[in-house]
Specification:
Blueprint: H1 2-23, E1 39-43, H2 44-48, E2 57-58, H3 60-70, H4 74-82, E3 86-90, E4 96-98, H5 102-110, E5 119-127, H6 134-142, E6 149-150, E7 161-162, E8 174-175, E9 178-179, E10 182-183, H7 185-192, H8 227-240, H9 251-261, H10 272-279, H11 283-286, H12 289-293, E11 295-296, E12 305-306
Parallel strand pairs: 2-10, 3-5
Antiparallel strand pairs: 1-5, 3-4, 6-7, 8-9, 11-12
Helix pairs in contact: 3-5, 3-7, 7-8, 7-10
Length: 330
């Protein structure tokens, strides 16, 4: 009986290894030879030359924070990238377009040349061999897979406005002198508020129970597109355009004053610790009734609607953020 059990376990182990091997096969030269839902791996140095962004901006401060936390060396970087398959859409020429993890890849690039051999796992979310040019981008927008909005003139006191695909950066790159992206400090803020922690009050496995909001999945278990950009819009609107959204008190003025003193475009000068401390000033806004009732206007179509994951009151969020399924074309 023990022998039978041994061989069953051995077979399961072999099957598991085979499955992992299939999911980690090297990417072929022609990505169009893959099918939707397949995965493959490719070195960052090679992928960087071909991967196209689908948004014009990232939060520089958040990408730097991720670099310092998750990309300390080759081993930690590989572990981080193994946990974050990058969903892509292939156009008629087979060019991969990044549908998520722009900040993570920017952080990887910020880590420097020593990380260029880190392997990135691609997940084929969409294959559109029938469309090219404007038609391809139109389909991405219809599926909420491209965020073609940015802050006018990189001015954080203005709300995002529409751009055309030709204005997108040609690659994902970031180093100490700059980035291919524009900086959106609100996008940084909306991520830092997810990492508000209080180790004495949060249970094990849920260290960020006092975070600003709950990053929930949609009803089918998939990630909600542009989740953090939705909250970034709300915070910017409340800070400079609709200040009545803030509860009474000095929190808004404290936040605004701190926000305007922190560096975000000068990458070497960015101090993620200061940004994280500032994020706590937003809790009265994010946990209040206005956040629960807020509706992003239809003028920013990809973000329009109520804020997902709003949590009313200052009780801890009972569960950690869930792992949502990777986006797929419908």
């Amino acid at each position: 009986m023990r022998a039978v059990f041994y061989w069953i376990c051995l077979f399961i182990g072999i099957l598991k290894c085979a499955t992992q091997k299939i999911s980690n096969d090297p990417c072929p030269d022609q990505l169009l030879s893959l099918s939707q839902g397949m995965k493959c791996t490719i070195e960052w140095a090679k992928l960087k030359k071909m991967l196209k962004p689908t948004q014009p901006s990232i939060g520089f401060s958040w990408s730097k924070a991720k670099m310092l936390e998750d990309f300390k060396d080759g081993k930690s970087s590989q572990k981080e990238m193994d946990s974050k398959p990058v969903p892509v859409a292939l156009n008629s020429e087979g060019a991969p377009h990044c549908l998520d993890h722009h900040h993570t890849l920017a952080a990887l690039d910020l880590g420097g040349p020593s990380l260029s051999s880190v392997f990135v796992t691609l997940y084929i979310s969409c294959i559109d061999t029938d469309s090219s040019g404007d038609q391809f981008w139109q389909k991405l927008e219809e599926n909420k897979m491209a965020y073609l909005y940015t802050l006018p003139e990189s001015n954080p006191k203005m709300l995002p406005q529409k751009i055309v695909p030709e204005e997108l950066p040609s690659e994902i790159s970031m180093n100490l002198t700059g980035s291919s992206f524009e900086d959106d400090p609100w996008r940084s803020v909306s991520s830092f508020v997810r990492k508000i922690s209080d180790g004495q009050k949060c249970p094990k496995g849920n260290k960020y129970c006092n975070r600003g909001y709950d990053r929930v999945c949609d009803l089918d278990g998939y990630g909600i597109p542009f989740f953090e950009f939705r909250w970034a819009y709300f915070i910017a609107d409340a800070t400079y355009h609709n200040q009545s959204l803030w509860p009474q008190g000095k929190n808004r003025t404290d936040f605004e004053r701190t926000f305007e003193t922190l560096s975000s475009k000068d990458i070497p000068a960015i101090d993620p610790g200061q940004w994280q401390a500032m994020a706590s000033l937003l809790l009265p806004l994010l946990r209040g009734v206005p956040a629960v009732e807020y509706v992003v206007p239809s003028t920013v179509a990809p973000l329009s609607g109520k804020l997902p994951g709003a949590h009313l009151g200052f009780t801890p969020i009972p569960e950690p953020d869930p792992d949502c399924k990777l986006v797929m074309c419908k």
